[in-house]
Amino acid sequence: MSNTLNPTATIESSETTRSKWTSSDTTWMLSLYGTAIGAGVLFLPIKAGSGGLIPLLFVLFFSFPMAYLAHRGLCRFILAGSSNDGDITVTTEEFFGPTAGNVITFLYFLIIFPILLIYSVGLTNTTLSFMENQLHLISATAADSLALKSIVSLAIVSCLMLIINFGQEMTLKVMSYLVYPFICVLMFIAVWMSQYWSTAIFSTWSTEATVMGTLGNIWLIIPVMVFAFNHSPIISSLAVAKKKEDAGVAEQKCSRIIKYANILMVVTVMFFVVSCALALSPEQLSQAAEENLPILSYVANHFGTPFFSILAPIVAFVAMSKSFFGHYLGAKEGFDGLVTRGAKAMGKAPSVKTVNKITFVFIFITCWVIAILSPNVLDLIETLVGPIIASILFLLPMYAISRVPALAKYKGQVSNVFVTVLGLIAISAIVFSLVNMAIAG
């Protein structure tokens, strides 16, 4: 019977056509890839390699299922909402009420804002290291001085905020163009470091301090993995777009896009991570963590090749600047909302201009102060950013699957248990880190 006389066959044929891979899908795949691959990649090799061989193997084997299944779960959650324009906040309000929507909005701010602080610290330390080791303008003692750190961090944060204030749209466009050259350079660096590969990390197989120590390293690596592969901010946009473009096959399309994007990012990132781990010993990677430097700055100082020693810090600076600009928009939007809601609760209605000024001053001062104080970046990721991302990216969709009828078809899957367990481990890393700090103190 022809499709004309068989409506079911016509529908199936139409869905098959729409489920085919398109140029739009390629664009979305690269957008997810570009969102995830940024400055976070510069801190993953330090945590993955400093713990020895077993934690590195954990990252190698679990990165893809962890990133893919979690982001697929979040996308399914958003797609289940009844509104075609509904993002994560709208969908959360629909399923759990307005209070839950407000909580998610606040948690999103808590995810994005600390990342700005991380990049403020990273950019300041990278600049000071470059001035000391490559330009030889300052001594090691000067680089650690509070006065110089205050001046350098003020200059960096001022330049970033000035660019945002007067050329935000153009800046973001330029920065988005830098994503793919950044990846090419990162792969070049990974290949270049292959000449320094050694078997030092394999010796940790027999010299791991204790089983508990190894498990502890794996425990604390999970929040860093969550941070390094996170592209949750763009998942809402993907879900909303595919609801409109590919109604009926949106879930299938989104799952495929997320899968291919994660394959691409895991292959490239893990090649870089493994190359760093083989070129440097666990002790050297631990030193990079202690110096609070992104991996490229440490590598530039360690190998000392003239061309590379200049290239690596510049790449690190561009990567963190790009990520700073991208996250500023989210942090600004979130803080604007908090200020507006707080003012309304007090019976006031501030103008948009006033709210923008308050947000600008708050972010400027906070980033500057934190850059001066220079808290350890990996500690911030382990105890704050990674766990909060996990609460939304891993646990919210899994909770919704168990409670929301529209998601009931996803119940009973083994992947749900996997995502839930890793999400709980990532959040519990806060407790583990705080206990470790208390013991050390």
Automatic annotation (TrEMBL):
The chain crosses the membrane at residues 28-46, 52-70, 106-126, 146-166, 178-198, 218-240, 260-280, 300-320, 358-378, 384-402, 414-439. It is found in: Cell inner membrane. It comes from the Bacteria. It is a multi-pass membrane protein. InterPro entries: Amino_acid_transport_2. The keyword Manganese does not apply. Keywords: Cell inner membrane, Cell membrane, Membrane, Transmembrane, Transmembrane helix, Transport. PANTHER family: SERINE TRANSPORTER (PTHR35334), SERINE TRANSPORTER SDAC (PTHR35334:SF2). This is HAAAP family serine/threonine permease. It comes from Wohlfahrtiimonas larvae.
